[in-house]
Amino acid sequence: MSDIVFDVINDGSLKLFYDNDIQRGMIKENLDKIRTTIPAGTRLIAVSKTKPVEDLKEAYEAGQRLFGENKALEMRDKHEALPKDIEWHFIGHLQSNKVKYIAPFVSLIHSIDSTAILQTVNKEAGKNHRVIDCLLQFHIASEETKFGLNTEEAEILLQSYAELKHVRIVGVMGMATNTENSQLVRQEFRTLKEIFENLKQRHFADRPEFNEISMGMSGDYAIAIEEGSTLVRVGSAIFGARNYSQVNDIA
Predict the structure, then answer these.
(1) What is the DSSP-derived secondary structure letter of residue 13?
(2) CA end-to-end span of the chain, whole Å?
(3) Is the Cβ–Cβ distance between 37 and 57 less than 8 Å?
(4) Does the residue 21 lie in any domain?
(5) What is the spatial distance between Cα 194 and Cα 239, in angstroms, rounded to a whole number?
(6) Residues 6+ positions from 143 with CB-CB distance below 8 Å
(7) For 190, left (φ over 0), alpha (ψ -120 to 50), or beta?
(8) Is residue 11 over pLDDT 50?
(9) What is the number of domains present in the chain?
């Protein structure tokens, strides 16, 4: 689904800004517009992967504090270059050998998709004397290329969770199918909400911290909010098209 930002021009008509039309000076304007569409109870993560530090600084100066990255080394480097009150969210597929780079500072890992990666995060968090918040990523899309647990795998993972003292599972994450079929997207988000409710009842009834549902991106976050999202991950509608040629970290 193409990411589009709408703007009203002088004659009252809508102008469409596609990804590569969004210039750096528009970041604050884009953020302001998107914030008007996000209700209380839902937080906006500015997905800044592949974007230069200057773009993140502009978003920061516009009041944005939650940023999402999908490459561990890129996130480490940006953390070193930017103010320390930023809340860093790791939203990509995480390899075990890269956890050590983000364990000292990451606020929330959205992409726990195996027992092995949860155990690695627990180990690295312990080395840094931290407890790292995590989301279980579920495969809800019709596309096989997307990562994520199924419900049986999640049940197996949770059998060993109590033994891990340096991670805290606080919710779920999922990515909908990349499609123009809004009804399919809506159903997939509803599926994730149902998974969240079932896990809450079965495993986290006495854990108030289990309260996050991370779903929705630039093209579908409005639907995600309607279906109960507490965290939306918006990138190109804020920063414009991604430049993958600038990324050196092959995750």
Answers:
(1) P
(2) 24
(3) no
(4) yes
(5) 32
(6) 177, 178
(7) alpha
(8) no
(9) 1
80 within some domain: yes
Residue 122's alpha-carbon distances to 33, 44, 94, 116, 134, in angstroms, are 38, 26, 13, 10, 10
Domain with 53 in it: what CATH number? Answer: 3.20.20.10
Q: What is the spatial distance between Cα 169 and Cα 91, in angstroms, rounded to a whole number?
A: 15
pTM of the predicted model, to two decimals? 0.87
Tokens of 18: 């596609």
| Percentage of the chain lying above the pLDDT 90 cut | 83
Q: Identify the weakest region by mean pLDDT among 5-9, 89-93, 136-140, 179-183.
A: 5-9
pLDDT in tens, 178-202: 999 999 999 999 999 999 999 999 9
Residue 134 to residue 132: CA distance in whole angstroms = 6
Spatial distance between the Cα atoms of 228 and 243, rounded to a whole number of angstroms:
31
Q: Is 226 strand, coil or helix?
A: helix
pLDDT digits (tens, 9 = 90+) for 144-153: 777 899 999 9
**Contact residues for 216 (Cβ-Cβ < 8 A; gap 6+):** 189, 222, 223, 224, 225, 229, 232, 233, 234
The H helix count followed by the E strand count for the chain is: 9, 10
Determine, yes or no, domain membership for 181.
Answer: yes
H or E segment and range at residue 46:
strand 43-47
Residue 180 and residue 59: Cα distance in Å, rounded? 29
Tokens of 21: 């039309």
Residue 125: name the closest of 95, 105, 143 by CA: 105
Q: Which DSSP category does 183 fall into?
A: H
The answer to whether residue 211 is domain-embedded is yes
Tokens at residue 222, please?
Answer: 């409005």
Q: For residue 186, what are the domain limits? A: 4-243
Distance CA 154, CA 207 (A): 17
Model pLDDT, residue 25: 74
pLDDT of residue 144: 78
